[in-house]
Amino acid sequence: MSRSPRYQLLAAAALCATAFAVQAQDKGPIKVGLMLPATGTYAALGTAIENGFKLYVQEHGGKLGGRSIEYFKVDDESDPSKATENVNKLIKRDNVDVLIGTVHSGVALAMAKAAKDNNTLYINPNAGADAITGPMCAPNIVRSSFTNWQPGYAMGVAAAQKGYKTAMTITWNYAAGAEAVKGFTDGFEKGGGKVVKDLKLPFPNVEFQALLTEIASQKPDVTFAFFAGGGAVKFVKDYAAAGLRKTVPLVGSGFLTDGTLEAQGEAAQGLLTALHYADNLDTPRNNSFRKAYAVAYKMNPDVYAVQGYDAAQILNAGLTAAKGDLAKRDVITAAMRKVVVDSPRGKFTISPAGNPVQDIYLREVKGTENDTIGVAAKALADPARGCNLK
Ligand code: BEZ
Protein backbone atom coordinates (compact mmCIF):
# COMPACT_ATOMS: atom_id res chain seq x y z
CA MET A 1 0.00 0.00 0.00
CA SER A 2 1.46 3.42 -0.94
CA ARG A 3 1.59 6.08 1.80
CA SER A 4 1.16 9.83 1.41
CA PRO A 5 4.29 12.04 1.64
CA ARG A 6 2.85 13.55 4.87
CA TYR A 7 2.48 10.06 6.40
CA GLN A 8 6.04 9.16 5.41
CA LEU A 9 7.35 12.39 6.96
CA LEU A 10 5.52 11.74 10.23
CA ALA A 11 6.74 8.14 10.33
CA ALA A 12 10.33 9.31 9.79
CA ALA A 13 9.98 11.92 12.56
CA ALA A 14 8.58 9.30 14.96
CA LEU A 15 11.50 6.98 14.13
CA CYS A 16 14.00 9.79 14.83
CA ALA A 17 12.34 10.62 18.17
CA THR A 18 12.44 6.94 19.20
CA ALA A 19 16.06 6.66 18.11
CA PHE A 20 16.90 9.78 20.17
CA ALA A 21 15.08 8.42 23.21
CA VAL A 22 16.82 5.04 22.92
CA GLN A 23 20.20 6.72 22.36
CA ALA A 24 19.66 8.98 25.40
CA GLN A 25 18.56 5.98 27.50
CA ASP A 26 21.57 3.97 26.42
CA LYS A 27 23.86 6.58 27.89
CA GLY A 28 22.43 5.94 31.37
CA PRO A 29 21.48 8.58 33.90
CA ILE A 30 23.02 12.01 34.31
CA LYS A 31 24.80 12.11 37.65
CA VAL A 32 23.69 15.22 39.55
CA GLY A 33 25.67 16.18 42.66
CA LEU A 34 23.58 18.13 45.18
CA MET A 35 25.83 19.96 47.63
CA LEU A 36 23.48 21.75 50.03
CA PRO A 37 23.17 22.36 53.78
CA ALA A 38 21.06 19.74 55.57
CA THR A 39 22.03 21.00 59.03
CA GLY A 40 22.60 24.41 60.65
CA THR A 41 20.98 27.82 60.19
CA TYR A 42 20.56 27.35 56.39
CA ALA A 43 19.17 23.77 56.49
CA ALA A 44 15.61 24.72 55.45
CA LEU A 45 17.01 26.67 52.49
CA GLY A 46 18.87 23.59 51.27
CA THR A 47 15.71 21.47 51.52
CA ALA A 48 13.69 24.01 49.53
CA ILE A 49 16.31 24.10 46.75
CA GLU A 50 16.37 20.31 46.50
CA ASN A 51 12.55 20.17 46.51
CA GLY A 52 12.34 22.76 43.73
CA PHE A 53 14.94 21.00 41.58
CA LYS A 54 13.25 17.63 41.97
CA LEU A 55 9.81 19.07 41.28
CA TYR A 56 10.92 20.30 37.86
CA VAL A 57 12.49 16.92 37.09
CA GLN A 58 9.31 15.09 38.16
CA GLU A 59 7.20 17.39 35.99
CA HIS A 60 9.37 16.27 33.07
CA GLY A 61 8.88 12.56 33.57
CA GLY A 62 12.01 12.18 35.72
CA LYS A 63 14.26 13.25 32.83
CA LEU A 64 16.24 16.26 31.65
CA GLY A 65 17.29 16.43 28.00
CA GLY A 66 15.95 12.89 27.52
CA ARG A 67 18.23 11.47 30.25
CA SER A 68 17.13 10.09 33.60
CA ILE A 69 18.70 11.58 36.71
CA GLU A 70 20.71 9.94 39.48
CA TYR A 71 21.27 12.05 42.59
CA PHE A 72 24.36 12.17 44.81
CA LYS A 73 24.19 14.23 47.99
CA VAL A 74 26.54 15.91 50.44
CA ASP A 75 25.55 17.97 53.50
CA ASP A 76 27.94 20.93 53.32
CA GLU A 77 26.84 22.23 56.77
CA SER A 78 27.37 25.79 55.43
CA ASP A 79 30.97 25.32 56.55
CA PRO A 80 33.57 26.86 54.21
CA SER A 81 36.41 25.03 56.00
CA LYS A 82 34.98 21.67 54.82
CA ALA A 83 33.88 22.87 51.38
CA THR A 84 36.80 21.69 49.23
CA GLU A 85 36.77 18.24 50.79
CA ASN A 86 32.98 18.04 50.37
CA VAL A 87 32.89 19.12 46.75
CA ASN A 88 35.67 16.67 45.91
CA LYS A 89 33.51 13.84 47.26
CA LEU A 90 31.07 14.65 44.47
CA ILE A 91 33.61 15.37 41.73
CA LYS A 92 36.26 12.73 42.41
CA ARG A 93 34.52 9.98 44.41
CA ASP A 94 31.06 10.05 42.79
CA ASN A 95 32.18 11.33 39.40
CA VAL A 96 29.15 13.57 38.99
CA ASP A 97 28.37 15.18 35.63
CA VAL A 98 26.98 18.36 37.14
CA LEU A 99 27.23 20.12 40.48
CA ILE A 100 24.24 21.90 42.03
CA GLY A 101 24.85 24.04 45.13
CA THR A 102 24.90 25.76 47.47
CA VAL A 103 23.39 28.27 49.90
CA HIS A 104 26.44 29.81 51.67
CA SER A 105 28.69 32.11 49.62
CA GLY A 106 31.91 30.96 51.31
CA VAL A 107 31.14 27.33 50.47
CA ALA A 108 30.06 28.20 46.93
CA LEU A 109 33.36 30.00 46.26
CA ALA A 110 35.16 26.70 46.95
CA MET A 111 32.67 24.87 44.71
CA ALA A 112 33.27 27.33 41.88
CA LYS A 113 37.04 26.90 42.18
CA ALA A 114 36.73 23.10 42.10
CA ALA A 115 34.30 23.29 39.15
CA LYS A 116 36.77 25.47 37.25
CA ASP A 117 39.79 23.30 38.11
CA ASN A 118 37.99 20.10 37.05
CA ASN A 119 35.90 21.63 34.25
CA THR A 120 32.72 20.27 35.86
CA LEU A 121 29.35 21.79 34.91
CA TYR A 122 28.20 23.90 37.85
CA ILE A 123 24.80 25.52 38.47
CA ASN A 124 24.57 27.66 41.59
CA PRO A 125 20.96 27.76 42.91
CA ASN A 126 21.49 30.37 45.65
CA ALA A 127 24.83 31.60 47.01
CA GLY A 128 25.24 35.16 45.80
CA ALA A 129 29.05 35.58 46.06
CA ASP A 130 29.70 38.31 43.50
CA ALA A 131 33.07 36.79 42.49
CA ILE A 132 31.47 33.61 41.09
CA THR A 133 30.04 35.59 38.20
CA GLY A 134 32.80 38.19 38.49
CA PRO A 135 36.54 37.38 38.44
CA MET A 136 35.85 33.62 38.75
CA CYS A 137 33.31 33.51 35.89
CA ALA A 138 33.65 30.61 33.44
CA PRO A 139 31.57 29.06 30.64
CA ASN A 140 30.78 25.99 32.78
CA ILE A 141 29.41 28.10 35.67
CA VAL A 142 25.85 29.53 35.71
CA ARG A 143 23.69 30.83 38.51
CA SER A 144 19.87 30.51 38.79
CA SER A 145 19.68 32.92 41.72
CA PHE A 146 21.24 36.41 42.13
CA THR A 147 24.40 38.17 43.19
CA ASN A 148 24.39 39.47 46.75
CA TRP A 149 24.73 42.96 45.29
CA GLN A 150 21.45 42.79 43.31
CA PRO A 151 18.73 42.80 46.02
CA GLY A 152 20.89 44.98 48.29
CA TYR A 153 21.21 47.62 45.55
CA ALA A 154 17.49 47.56 44.77
CA MET A 155 16.64 47.99 48.47
CA GLY A 156 19.05 50.93 48.66
CA VAL A 157 17.34 52.63 45.72
CA ALA A 158 13.89 52.05 47.28
CA ALA A 159 14.99 53.27 50.74
CA ALA A 160 16.35 56.52 49.25
CA GLN A 161 13.11 56.95 47.30
CA LYS A 162 11.18 56.64 50.55
CA GLY A 163 13.07 59.70 51.76
CA TYR A 164 15.38 58.09 54.35
CA LYS A 165 18.60 60.09 54.65
CA THR A 166 20.75 58.06 57.07
CA ALA A 167 21.11 54.30 57.45
CA MET A 168 22.94 51.74 59.57
CA THR A 169 23.58 48.25 58.26
CA ILE A 170 23.83 44.99 60.17
CA THR A 171 24.88 41.56 58.91
CA TRP A 172 27.04 38.50 59.34
CA ASN A 173 30.70 39.10 58.60
CA TYR A 174 31.21 37.05 55.42
CA ALA A 175 30.99 37.59 51.65
CA ALA A 176 27.18 37.55 51.43
CA GLY A 177 26.71 40.13 54.16
CA ALA A 178 29.49 42.42 52.98
CA GLU A 179 28.28 42.34 49.36
CA ALA A 180 24.62 42.89 50.27
CA VAL A 181 25.71 45.92 52.32
CA LYS A 182 27.83 47.17 49.41
CA GLY A 183 24.80 46.87 47.11
CA PHE A 184 22.57 48.70 49.58
CA THR A 185 25.17 51.44 50.05
CA ASP A 186 25.57 51.89 46.25
CA GLY A 187 21.80 52.25 45.73
CA PHE A 188 21.13 54.35 48.84
CA GLU A 189 23.99 56.80 48.37
CA LYS A 190 23.22 57.17 44.64
CA GLY A 191 19.76 58.32 45.77
CA GLY A 192 21.23 60.90 48.18
CA GLY A 193 21.32 58.84 51.42
CA LYS A 194 24.33 58.20 53.67
CA VAL A 195 25.27 54.95 55.39
CA VAL A 196 26.60 56.09 58.76
CA LYS A 197 27.75 52.77 60.26
CA ASP A 198 28.12 49.09 59.32
CA LEU A 199 27.62 46.58 62.16
CA LYS A 200 28.80 42.95 61.86
CA LEU A 201 28.91 39.73 63.81
CA PRO A 202 30.46 36.38 62.90
CA PHE A 203 28.38 33.82 60.95
CA PRO A 204 26.16 32.15 62.23
CA ASN A 205 26.17 34.02 65.57
CA VAL A 206 22.76 35.31 66.76
CA GLU A 207 23.72 37.36 69.82
CA PHE A 208 22.34 40.63 68.43
CA GLN A 209 21.65 42.55 71.65
CA ALA A 210 24.76 44.77 71.85
CA LEU A 211 24.38 45.77 68.19
CA LEU A 212 20.67 46.55 68.61
CA THR A 213 21.57 48.80 71.55
CA GLU A 214 23.97 50.67 69.27
CA ILE A 215 21.25 51.18 66.63
CA ALA A 216 18.90 52.45 69.33
CA SER A 217 21.44 54.98 70.54
CA GLN A 218 22.48 56.25 67.06
CA LYS A 219 18.88 56.46 65.73
CA PRO A 220 19.48 56.36 61.95
CA ASP A 221 16.44 56.90 59.70
CA VAL A 222 16.50 53.22 58.68
CA THR A 223 18.33 49.93 59.34
CA PHE A 224 19.29 47.63 56.45
CA ALA A 225 19.90 43.96 57.35
CA PHE A 226 21.14 40.87 55.57
CA PHE A 227 20.32 37.66 57.42
CA ALA A 228 18.67 34.45 56.23
CA GLY A 229 17.25 31.18 57.54
CA GLY A 230 17.21 30.55 61.29
CA GLY A 231 19.36 33.63 61.97
CA ALA A 232 16.86 35.88 60.17
CA VAL A 233 14.03 34.51 62.31
CA LYS A 234 15.88 35.40 65.50
CA PHE A 235 17.05 38.81 64.24
CA VAL A 236 13.58 40.00 63.20
CA LYS A 237 12.10 38.86 66.52
CA ASP A 238 14.89 40.48 68.55
CA TYR A 239 14.58 43.75 66.58
CA ALA A 240 10.85 43.92 67.36
CA ALA A 241 11.32 42.84 70.99
CA ALA A 242 13.86 45.65 71.48
CA GLY A 243 11.10 48.10 70.52
CA LEU A 244 13.11 49.31 67.53
CA ARG A 245 10.36 48.82 64.94
CA LYS A 246 8.65 51.97 66.29
CA THR A 247 11.72 54.21 66.12
CA VAL A 248 14.01 52.88 63.34
CA PRO A 249 12.29 51.14 60.37
CA LEU A 250 13.92 47.87 59.31
CA VAL A 251 14.47 46.92 55.65
CA GLY A 252 16.53 44.17 54.03
CA SER A 253 17.47 41.92 51.18
CA GLY A 254 14.38 39.71 50.90
CA PHE A 255 16.09 36.72 52.53
CA LEU A 256 15.30 38.43 55.84
CA THR A 257 11.65 37.36 55.51
CA ASP A 258 11.68 34.52 52.94
CA GLY A 259 10.82 31.03 54.16
CA THR A 260 10.74 32.47 57.69
CA LEU A 261 7.35 34.12 58.16
CA GLU A 262 5.56 31.32 60.01
CA ALA A 263 8.28 31.52 62.66
CA GLN A 264 8.63 35.33 62.68
CA GLY A 265 4.88 35.93 63.06
CA GLU A 266 3.83 39.36 64.30
CA ALA A 267 7.44 40.65 64.47
CA ALA A 268 7.72 40.63 60.67
CA GLN A 269 4.41 42.24 59.73
CA GLY A 270 4.81 45.23 57.41
CA LEU A 271 8.56 44.79 56.83
CA LEU A 272 9.80 46.01 53.44
CA THR A 273 12.39 43.96 51.57
CA ALA A 274 13.69 43.65 48.00
CA LEU A 275 14.03 40.36 46.13
CA HIS A 276 13.63 38.71 42.73
CA TYR A 277 10.56 36.76 43.89
CA ALA A 278 7.30 37.54 45.66
CA ASP A 279 4.71 35.02 46.84
CA ASN A 280 1.71 36.81 45.36
CA LEU A 281 2.91 37.23 41.75
CA ASP A 282 -0.39 36.55 40.04
CA THR A 283 0.80 34.86 36.86
CA PRO A 284 -0.26 31.46 35.50
CA ARG A 285 3.38 30.34 35.81
CA ASN A 286 3.71 31.26 39.48
CA ASN A 287 0.23 30.04 40.40
CA SER A 288 0.77 26.62 38.84
CA PHE A 289 4.24 26.32 40.40
CA ARG A 290 2.93 27.17 43.86
CA LYS A 291 0.08 24.71 43.52
CA ALA A 292 2.31 21.87 42.34
CA TYR A 293 4.88 22.56 45.08
CA ALA A 294 2.19 22.64 47.79
CA VAL A 295 0.74 19.35 46.55
CA ALA A 296 4.16 17.66 46.37
CA TYR A 297 5.64 18.89 49.65
CA LYS A 298 2.64 19.97 51.78
CA MET A 299 4.13 23.42 52.29
CA ASN A 300 4.38 26.68 50.40
CA PRO A 301 7.42 27.39 48.24
CA ASP A 302 9.82 30.28 48.83
CA VAL A 303 12.56 31.95 46.80
CA TYR A 304 14.96 29.05 47.43
CA ALA A 305 12.48 26.56 45.97
CA VAL A 306 12.12 28.79 42.90
CA GLN A 307 15.88 28.92 42.43
CA GLY A 308 16.15 25.12 42.69
CA TYR A 309 13.35 24.74 40.15
CA ASP A 310 15.06 27.16 37.79
CA ALA A 311 18.43 25.42 38.18
CA ALA A 312 16.77 22.30 36.77
CA GLN A 313 15.28 24.37 33.93
CA ILE A 314 18.70 25.72 33.02
CA LEU A 315 20.25 22.24 33.06
CA ASN A 316 17.36 20.97 30.95
CA ALA A 317 17.98 23.72 28.37
CA GLY A 318 21.64 22.72 28.07
CA LEU A 319 21.01 18.99 27.87
CA THR A 320 18.12 19.33 25.44
CA ALA A 321 20.25 21.41 23.06
CA ALA A 322 22.90 18.66 23.15
CA LYS A 323 20.27 15.90 22.81
CA GLY A 324 21.43 14.54 26.14
CA ASP A 325 25.02 14.11 24.95
CA LEU A 326 27.37 15.33 27.70
CA ALA A 327 30.30 15.21 25.28
CA LYS A 328 28.81 18.21 23.49
CA ARG A 329 30.07 20.49 26.20
CA ASP A 330 30.13 23.70 24.15
CA VAL A 331 26.54 23.16 23.01
CA ILE A 332 25.45 22.63 26.62
CA THR A 333 27.24 25.64 28.09
CA ALA A 334 26.09 27.94 25.27
CA ALA A 335 22.45 26.83 25.66
CA MET A 336 22.61 27.31 29.43
CA ARG A 337 23.50 30.97 28.79
CA LYS A 338 21.06 31.57 25.91
CA VAL A 339 17.96 30.22 27.64
CA VAL A 340 15.12 32.56 28.59
CA VAL A 341 14.09 30.98 31.86
CA ASP A 342 10.31 30.74 32.27
CA SER A 343 10.53 31.15 36.02
CA PRO A 344 7.78 31.50 38.64
CA ARG A 345 9.52 34.84 39.40
CA GLY A 346 8.87 36.01 35.80
CA LYS A 347 10.93 35.35 32.67
CA PHE A 348 14.63 36.16 32.96
CA THR A 349 17.76 35.97 30.84
CA ILE A 350 21.32 35.10 31.80
CA SER A 351 24.18 37.58 31.42
CA PRO A 352 27.43 36.68 29.63
CA ALA A 353 28.94 36.32 33.12
CA GLY A 354 26.32 33.65 33.94
CA ASN A 355 24.05 35.55 36.33
CA PRO A 356 20.29 36.26 36.03
CA VAL A 357 19.23 39.63 34.64
CA GLN A 358 15.97 40.07 36.51
CA ASP A 359 13.38 42.33 38.07
CA ILE A 360 13.86 42.94 41.78
CA TYR A 361 10.52 43.41 43.52
CA LEU A 362 9.82 45.66 46.48
CA ARG A 363 7.83 43.48 48.90
CA GLU A 364 5.84 43.96 52.05
CA VAL A 365 5.14 41.24 54.62
CA LYS A 366 1.42 40.52 54.93
CA GLY A 367 0.54 37.57 57.15
CA THR A 368 2.66 34.65 55.95
CA GLU A 369 3.38 36.15 52.50
CA ASN A 370 5.92 38.49 50.98
CA ASP A 371 3.67 40.48 48.66
CA THR A 372 5.00 42.62 45.84
CA ILE A 373 4.12 46.29 46.05
CA GLY A 374 6.20 47.34 43.04
CA VAL A 375 9.41 46.78 41.11
CA ALA A 376 12.42 48.29 42.89
CA ALA A 377 14.81 47.68 39.96
CA LYS A 378 13.76 46.56 36.47
CA ALA A 379 15.84 43.95 34.59
CA LEU A 380 18.75 44.50 36.96
CA ALA A 381 22.10 43.07 35.84
CA ASP A 382 25.01 42.62 38.21
CA PRO A 383 28.00 44.77 37.17
CA ALA A 384 30.04 41.51 36.92
CA ARG A 385 33.27 43.37 37.65
CA GLY A 386 36.31 41.33 36.67
CA CYS A 387 34.53 38.93 34.30
CA ASN A 388 35.86 38.93 30.75
CA LEU A 389 33.24 36.69 29.14
CA LYS A 390 31.27 38.45 26.39
C1 BEZ B 1 24.83 33.56 50.68
O1 BEZ B 1 25.65 33.12 51.52
O2 BEZ B 1 25.21 33.94 49.57
C2 BEZ B 1 23.39 33.59 51.01
C3 BEZ B 1 22.89 32.80 52.02
C4 BEZ B 1 21.53 32.83 52.30
C5 BEZ B 1 20.68 33.62 51.55
C6 BEZ B 1 21.18 34.41 50.54
C7 BEZ B 1 22.55 34.40 50.26
What would the keywords be for this entry?
12 helices, single chain, 42% helix, binds benzoic acid, Rossmann fold, globular, 390 residues
Task: Please give the domain count.
Answer: 2
Percent of sequence in beta strands: 15-25%
Query: In one word, what is the shape?
Result: globular
Order of helices and strands: HEHEEHEHEEHEHEHEHEHEHHHEEE
Number of DSSP helical runs: 12
Q: Architecture of the largest domain, according to CATH?
A: 3-Layer(aba) Sandwich
Low-confidence stretches: 13-22
Which fold name is given in CATH as the topology of the largest domain? Rossmann fold
Question: In which range does the helix fraction lie?
Answer: 40-55%
Radius of gyration: 22 Å
Q: Which CATH top level class of the largest domain fits?
A: Alpha Beta
Ligands (ions, cofactors included): benzoic acid
Number of strands: 14
Please state the average pLDDT score: 95
> Termini distance?
56 Å
Look at the helices and sheets and give the structural class.
Answer: alpha/beta
Sheet of most strands: 8 strands, mixed
CATH superfamily of the largest domain: Response regulator
Description:
- The structure is a single chain.
- With 390 residues, the protein is α/β, with parallel strands linked by helices.
- The chain has twelve helices and 14 strands.
- Strands 7, 8, 9, 10, 11, 12, 13 and 14 form an eight-stranded mixed β-sheet that branches.
- Strand 10, helix 9 and strand 11 (272-275) form a beta-alpha-beta unit.
- The protein is globular and about 65 Å long.
- Residues 13-22 have low confidence and may be disordered.
- Benzoic acid binds at residues 103-105, 126-129, 148, 176, 228, 255.
